[in-house]
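Changelog-adjacent note: as of this version, every example in the card shows the full chain rather than a window. The one below runs 315 residues end to end.
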Amino acid sequence: MEAMIERCAGLDVHQETVVACVLFGSLDKKPNKEIQTFPTTTSGLLALSDWLSSHKITDAVMESTGVYWKPVWNVIECDFQLILANAQHVKNVPGRKTDVKDAEWLAKLLRSGLMEKNFVPPKEIRDLRDLTRYRKKLIHTRTSERNRIHKILQDANIKLTSVLSDIFGVTGCRIIEALINGEKIGVFELQQMVDSRVKASTTDIAEALNGGIRKPHIDMLRFHWDHINHIDETIEKVVERIEQALIPYQEECELLDTIPGVDKNASAIFIAEMGVDMSVFKSSKHLASWAGVSPGNYESAGKKKQVKLSTETNH
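Full-length structure tokens:
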């Protein structure tokens, strides 16, 4: 393999250690090689950075192994030209010998210019990405808790879903809270609870509430209800942080908002996942592929195969 980089390093990242291999020397000669292992503690990563600097390393590469690469990247990204390699791409490069260590193999590929650089956004975008993904997880968790409440009501033969289009609307929430508090709910009480927009009559709602709710049902409802309220409070705080993080990208948000079907939340996700610098993508096709919306042809022996796509990458 023809050499293209005089001083480079390959980093084999694990949970507790980083194995670093540096290759340096004239491009027309066999390079000098040194290998050393560092702990992944902050002091260990700083020692790694100093060791790479002492060898005047300019470029370094590591594989995207789960989340273990992130602290290494955060510590050394300002001092070196870093490449985050796709593990599948590294695996498919021919020529690897079984006795060659991972770090050395990465360094050799980088020295020969055979490493394709993956997109890693700047810190501000990565921080925004953490917030938007966490908001998504919280919403999924809240939905799961609501489904559990729905299951408990069905078990108690409370047929709210038959008379209310959304049992977590204004009326539904009032009724559920009353059930949790052990209140008696008759037609008169329902008249105070039911929102004017509800189409079902109070008589029908009262009949739907004529079930067999027991104390274990009430206890479980209270657990799930308290958790939902806590999740709602957390979502509000996360949304506030997202809005603060988006302040430098107001122009981009306004442009994205002009796209039909894209609202404020979607704009935040777009920016968090893809950044605002489109020059990092070779073409619009590469951008579509990164976003997971590029059509693929997964066919073998005349049969089309389904492939699960996800926009939530580890990068």
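Structural remarks: The chain has 13 helices and seven strands.
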